[in-house]
Amino acid sequence: MKRLFCFLFLVPMLQKTHARSWDMWRMQQDTSEISEVDQQLLRGRLKSLLQKKSVKDSLNFKQVETLPLVSISEVLKGQVSGLYVQESSGEPGSIKNMVIRGLGSPLFETKDAINVQPAVYINGVPIARENNFTYSIQQYQFNRIGPATDNFAGIDLSAIESIQVIKDPIELAKLGPLAANGAIWILTKPGKEGKREINFDAYVGLATKPTVTPVNAQYENLFRSSFYSKYASTSDRLAYPGYLSDSTNVNYYGPANWNEEYYKTTPIYGGNLGIRGGGDRANFAFMGGYVKNASSADKTNFERYNALFNVNMAPFKWFNFGTTINASRSLRDRNKSLRDRFGEASYVPDLSVPISPNKEMYGEYLSMYDKALDNNSVNMLNVLVNLDLYLLPNLKFNSSLGIDYSEGARQAFFPSSLMETNNYMSSYFGFNQRLVFNNSLNYNIAVQDKHKFNFTLGSTYTQDLYRYNYSRAYDGPNDFIKVNVVDGNSNNAGYLTPVGGLYVNRWSNREDFRLHSLYLSGEYSWNNKLEVNAVLRYDGSSTMQPDSRWITTPAFAAKYHFIPEANDGLWNHFDVKASWARIGKPIFTSKYAIGPNYTADLNWGSEKSLVSYNGFAVASRPYSEGWVGYDIKWPYSDHAELTFDGSLLDKRFDFALSLYQKKDVNQLINTPIPAEYGYSGQIINGMTVQNRGVDLNLGAQILHNPTALQWKTSLTLSYNQNKLTALPEGRSELVVGDRLLKVGHAIDQFWLYENEGIYNEESDIPVQNGQKLQFDGVNFAVGDPRWKDQNGDFQVNDEDRVMKGNAMPKIVGAFQNQFNYKGFDLNFQWYFALGHKAMNQRASNKYDFINTENTNSLEGIREVFHWQQDVDISKYPIYNPWSSIVAYRVDQDLFLENASFLKLRALSVGYDLAHLNSIKDKVKTIRRAYVYVSGTNLLTISKFSGKDPELVDFNGYYTGYGLPLSPMISMGIKLEL
Amino acid sequence: MKRFNQLGVVMLMGLSVLISATSCNKKLDIVSSSLGSESKEWASISDTRAHLMGMYGLMRAATSNSYAHWVYGEMRYGDFTAYSRADLRSVQENKLKAAYPLVKDLTDWRRFYAVINAASLFIERAPQVMEKDRRYTERDLKFDIAQARTIRAFMYFYMVRIWGEVPLLKDSYDNGSFAEVGKSSEATVLAFAEEELLKAAEELPYVYGAGTQTYYGENSSVWVGVLVNKLTAYSLLAHVAAWQGKYINADVYAKFVVDNYTRGGLEILSVPNIVNPTNGLFGPSTRAQILAIRSSYELGEATNTGHIESLTLGYPIVTKAKPDIYISRDTINQVFDDVNDTRFGIDSVSGLVRTNYFSNYNGDIPIFSKIKVIRDGSGDSDFSIFGSNLVFTRLEEMILLQAEAKVVLGQRDDAIKYLNQIKSARGLKPYISSSPNDLLEEIFLERRRELMGEGWRWYDQIRLAKIKKNNQTINDLITNGGIYWPISADVLSRNSKLQQNNYWK
CB contact, 8 Å: A131 with chain B? Predict the structure, then answer.
């Protein structure tokens, strides 16, 4: 109850105003009948409950409605300029990253990705994303623990009325800190006044198999023999892996046909039914649907049940009320890669013998999964209760309560046959809960029709709670007990002791985030020519320290209609808009709010899950995470934009060009301090990243004869370049793990040795004063790569690494075409990303087999899908893999590849049966009966040597683990009755 | 009137928005549930216990990270050979600038300084608790501060052995100002360690929670073998002195341990009692210890990495096919030259090879299985998490150190007495003073056998070479500072007052 204090506080206030305004309106009402004018008014007001933003970048549904896509991020890919969607795996329902107008902060680890993501609003309620605090107990961060399902996969496209991508600074300023990285504004299908409408869609499709070239041990043996014959010592030869040395072993040297078992053409399907209707005083919408999506690889799939419910009412002239509920349940079958499984178990078994490339052997292995349990579910609920109170016709009070709740659960059990002879179980339950309480007062006034003013005073209170409980256990008594059973009676001696002597570890954590904002925004428009906007915000966050909790941020914009809307002449309209906004950037961890703090710091490099010493809880300064001092301030983001947009020739051509600069200022980063205090560094403000770029949208109706062939085409292009402009304490560079941050350089650059060939002969190695060229203190030897000594100090070390290549594409865009002829239409979409590079970690791991396999780390793991030619072995020289300088280290430009690509992302053909008179006659109410066939991921053009240049991790490393984005073919029908 | 009403409504609504705003300010005051705040910490006895255990925990992390204790102590010119791991092989060959992550990690001393900082902070802040919580007695404070001093001195001693000269910080400077501090000489650092240990030795008990007393509400069975005690302080004092060649002091301190070990519940153990995985010295037993860092399986602290077992065990003891490091048959035969040796030898009755130290002796590579605490010691091979104690020193080691000191001081008879105490416990023929073998060499050979795999070999070679000056390789390294590890580039870049150790420049 305490939590709802703020809400309850307003209720008595509301009642008073109720009474007063009620009287007021009654005094004015002279008839009991609602006039036609009032009806119009009410209709308009019902619509105003859910409002679109006044921005241009909205999704063209025509382009995507026929595609079997699961998540909002997939839907938006390539559709809107300025938004880059990075899909690192084709596994349905897995997490995808979105970035609007460039990276605001560097990405070092998986958990950093959340800091650059835009906020996604459903009907104005921002989705609470998974908090990244679980990573602190994860030794391996390949996936987040729990179901690891995309937060944005919970809503079905057919329930969506519109999706807009908000980049406009002033609109972002109105949304506040949560939208500092940009926002995606989704409105679900609202109720509709008039005759009831029924929508029905259904589709079926196939996820097709990719083509691969499987290999057996013969190939691997040949691959390795080139190293062994050149560089191996006798003892190295003795340690040659057993499975390769015995060429009579049919398991490895027999037929390599694992792919027949691993890749299977898989059906996908989905359906949706919706009803909308209502009168002028109330309307409703109801929708329900089911989707099953799948990848052809590794039997991964995703299922979702979703429902949407919306009721709007206007019981009085002065009162509108609306409720929208979105709910969904998703289930996911995840990939079976060893890396992900052992990574979750945080246990590295003996990896010296790989899975056989043989279909039968692999099939036997897969049959062990029959005893396994791998349930991943996510339940999502997004609720909005919204009411408008018209105190005066031009004075509106709006109050809304939004709830976004999603809970994820995962039950995993892997039988003993899958991990040495030792089974594993884990269970996870976690939720993200967000409550948003908005109140605003809106007043508009016009003076002489020329001057129009609109003022809004509002407050928003956001309260987030993130929690999880996680337990895992190893080596249960048998494979029949798949969950942790304990004695729940606290009086018994064995209270909570796991049955069967299980080794159970338990963790739980919670994180709170609260944000309170006050804002005043004003709009002024003059003569329909000039529009001026200003926003002043005052935001306070619970994750900031008390003396710097609040931040005041302004925003301004001015738009001038050089050519106002007109229907004749060359130009139909031409506007110029300039805007600037400062928005506070929220911090989603409460670690910094109290300044110097104490935590449990027990872990070491390869161990992340310890919670006690000798059974006792511990406390110490956060040495590993870094010192937190008292003077932490709000980071903020300065957005500036200049936009030109116009349309001409009867609106047949339209364009929008935006030049922008986004500066994320004063961000926190762990900065080095002398190691003699024990800290990994101190967390202080001071990092500034600037993004500049251009977004361009062009649209044209090349053929527009309504009775003949019509051709619409559009091109979206976004250019972006980021730059680090400041580091804390005036530093000019900072090394973080394997990356270098350097002021004046991009933050997504790799930091690499420049490879210039190989030392074939002893005489090739440079010698100076009798001393050979050294790598970090070790002499170069024959068989080592030549790395360029950049500074000429006769030592190759970190100082000789150069910043090269960008992980983020410089240009992203899409080229879409739509042809219509009578009822037929044909759509196709080319999608491209240019100017970025990827590090081929997969090739590095394959070549560095001596180190990756012998250290028994997960890098050296050999998956079944590694039995294929996925690395171009003609590209790399034969170095000495035993060399202590680690010849095939990934941080050299040998593994840097151009990852630019062009894809035919989608193609669809459809026909609207409603054009046929025979159908129209039979079903009178039919509005649309569209049948279609569509294909996605049809063609990729790229120089990249790996499987697919899109399947690159968030930080630009290609690991080969992403499941292929294989072509999907589907056919379906959309009925509107 | 109407106008007034309108205005009133507007005012009221505006006010309500504002009031709701201010009332919510309080809602923003929430403290993370997973953190301790400065205002609430150091207030009760549970805080001191948490911080005390935190220190031990940090010490465990420092010595386990990248197998530090074993790679530092056993790999350089040691008895172990890397089977196929190139990173460990490069340590074995003293190529400490090699680019492997493990080697790079071991050149970083941050984790040791984290322990030191935590200990300093404890010494500074624990007295506050006594004022706030009456359950925290003067005795508790005395014990706790003495432990913090011991741990801090131990870490300094440990670092001096690895890096030679290191910066000496005597306080925590826990205020957000992180001044750069240059290196202090080995002698200065060790003098500080000695001074601290002497202070601690006075205060530390032999046993915590002895008899009817309790310590943090627990009796001695909870604390036995867990915490540092009076004997720990003296053992460390003896080692600090011996490392500096001050054998007069080493003799005095070691003698204290050798004379008083029964008061700490220690005894000379037979080999099976040491190596038994469940109730031996390395297992999660309730045996008394001089200095052991615990990782009890029962208490959920057993781990897959950080233990020597992860390096040394292989099939059939665990499912891993080959161990990362092993002692070759040649070395075994050379070191264990007496078949009656209960550690390794041939049983004269059955004719079988004794397996206290090694398994699979007749296989292609022997497995060093002296320490094999899988889970609680009784675990089967299929789930390799290890719960062994990191035993820094034990009574047998101290007796041999005593013998060493006696030889150097010229008291041969005493030295032989101590050496033979160990020899007889291991079933070996006693050393006789007319033996052609050099007594000191014999003592170090006994150390080599007894302490195999306990992180002593490298330091023993140095002490021996310093005394005898008969090992060309090691003596050269001693002369030119090559016995130390390089300092990581990261550490150097964070503190401009530091320079790379000369040998590795």
Answer: no
Nearest to A889 by CA among A764, A771, A753: A753
Q: pLDDT digit string (tens) for B80-99?
A: 999 888 889 999 999 898 88
Residues 462-501 of B with CB under 8 A from A: 486, 489-491, 493-495
Asked if B127 is an interface residue toward chain A (Cβ–Cβ < 8 A), one would say: no
Give the 3-state secondary structure of residue A290. Answer: strand
Q: How far is residue B153 CA from its own chain's centroid? A: 12
- Say what the pLDDT of residue A504 is: 81
| Beta strands at A710-726 and A733-736: parallel, antiparallel or unpaired | unpaired
Task: Note the pLDDT of residue B15.
Answer: 60
Fold of B41-172+183-204+483-505: 1.25.40
Query: Tell me, what's the pLDDT at B12?
Result: 63
Please give the radius of gyration of chain A, using alpha carbons only, rounded to the nearest integer: 30
Reported as type and span, the H/E element at residue A552 is strand A550-563
Percent of chain A residues past pLDDT 90, beyond the cut:
54
Residues of chain A contacting B108 with CB distance shorter than 8 Å: 675
Interface of A with B in 324-363 (CB under 8 A): 346-350, 352-353
Contact residues for A228 (Cβ-Cβ < 8 A; gap 6+): A236, A237, A240
* CB nearest A441 (choices: B14, B24, B87): B14
Q: Does B92 touch chain A if contact means CB atoms closer than 8 Å? A: no
On whether any CB of chain A is under 8 Å from the CB of B85, the answer is yes
Report pLDDT for A53.
73
**Beta-sheet pairing, A530-541 with A503-526:** antiparallel
Distance from CA of B467 to the nearest CA of A (A): 30
A276: exposed, middle or buried (Cβ count in 10 Å: 0-12, 13-18, 19+): buried
Taking the Cβ of residue B109 and every Cβ of chain A, the question of whether any pair is shorter than 8 Å is answered with yes
Which pTM does this prediction carry? Answer: 0.90
Q: Please give the pLDDT value at position B202.
A: 95
Q: Please tell me the distance from the alpha carbon of residue A769 to that of residue A793, in angstroms, as a whole number.
A: 12
pLDDT digits (tens, 9 = 90+) for B370-379: 999 998 888 7
Mean pLDDT throughout A687-705? 92
- Residues A262, A268, A274: CA angle, nearest 5 degrees: 160
Query: Considering CB atoms only, which of A21, A676, A855 is closest to B181?
Result: A676
Closest chain B residue to the Cα of A421, Cα to Cα: B382
CA distance A395 to A389: 8
What ipTM did this prediction achieve? 0.92
Among candidate residues A127, A15, A102, the one with its CA nearest the CA of residue A690: A102
pLDDT at A99: 93
The per-residue pLDDT for A23 is 43
More confident residue, A372 or A500: A372
Name the token pair of A702. 């090349």
The answer to whether the Cβ–Cβ distance between B383 and A420 falls below 8 Å is yes
Query: Taking the CB of residue A32, how many other CB atoms lie within 10 A of it?
Result: 5
Residues of A in contact with B85 (CB under 8 A): 854-855
pLDDT in tens, A184-229: 999 998 888 788 889 999 999 999 998 889 999 999 999 999 999 9
Residue pointed to by tokens 């604390």: B223
Distance of CA A626 to the CA centre of its chain: 27
Judged by a CB distance cut-off of 8 A, whether residue A729 touches chain B is: no
- Whether residue A6 and residue B375 make contact (CB cut-off 8 A), yes or no, is no
* Tokens linked to B157: 């001693």
Q: Which residue has the tokens 């897995």?
A: A94
How far is the C-alpha of A848 from the C-alpha of A224, rounded, in Å?
11
The domain spans of chain B are 41-172+183-204+483-505
Among residues B388, B374, B399, the alpha carbon closest in space to that of B450 is found at B399
Mark yes or no for CB contact A511/B65 under 8 Å.
Answer: no
B330 contact residues in A (CB cutoff 8 A):
none
